[in-house]
Design brief:
By secondary structure, the protein is mainly α. The chain has a domain of about 80 residues. The chain is built from five helices and no strands. Helix 1 packs across helix 2, helix 2 runs antiparallel to helix 3 and helix 4 runs antiparallel to helix 5. The N and C termini lie far apart (about 40 Å).
């Protein structure tokens, strides 16, 4: 139960940060290109890399790592988890798995978005 509260609290913080920073970034550009989301994804990837490297280098507790990585970074952007998992596969020499993960995440993700949209749009 404690882990759930830590992750939930971190997700709450990350979600608020995502919304606020995304709006700030997007208002700086006069474009429909999603600069806000792109900025959040890049910041989230940096943050999760920082957290995991710090957790390996220090005596960070598993609870703190869950709060920061799964909670705050996960609430901020799940793209950071995707990036970290892909990086881990590549670092471990699992290039085939990394390529399959990248390809399937993008293709199936786009298909699922289209399918979810289509269910409502065309029914």
């Amino acid at each position: 139960m404690r882990i759930l509260l830590l992750v939930g609290t971190g997700s709450f913080i990350g979600g608020i940060l995502r919304y606020t920073l995304s709006q700030i970034i997007q208002t700086k550009f006069l474009s429909t290109f999603p600069f806000g989301t792109l900025g959040i994804n890049i910041l989230g990837c940096f943050a999760i890399g920082f957290v995991f490297a710090l957790s390996e280098k220090t005596n960070m507790s598993p609870e703190m790592r869950m709060f920061l990585a799964t909670g705050i970074c996960g609430g901020f952007t799940t793209f950071s988890a995707f990036s970290n998992e892909t990086f881990s596969l590549m670092r471990d020499g699992q290039l085939l798995y990394a390529s399959a993960y990248i390809t399937s995440s993008i293709l199936f993700g786009l298909f699922a978005t289209f399918f979810g949209y289509s269910i409502i749009k065309f029914i």
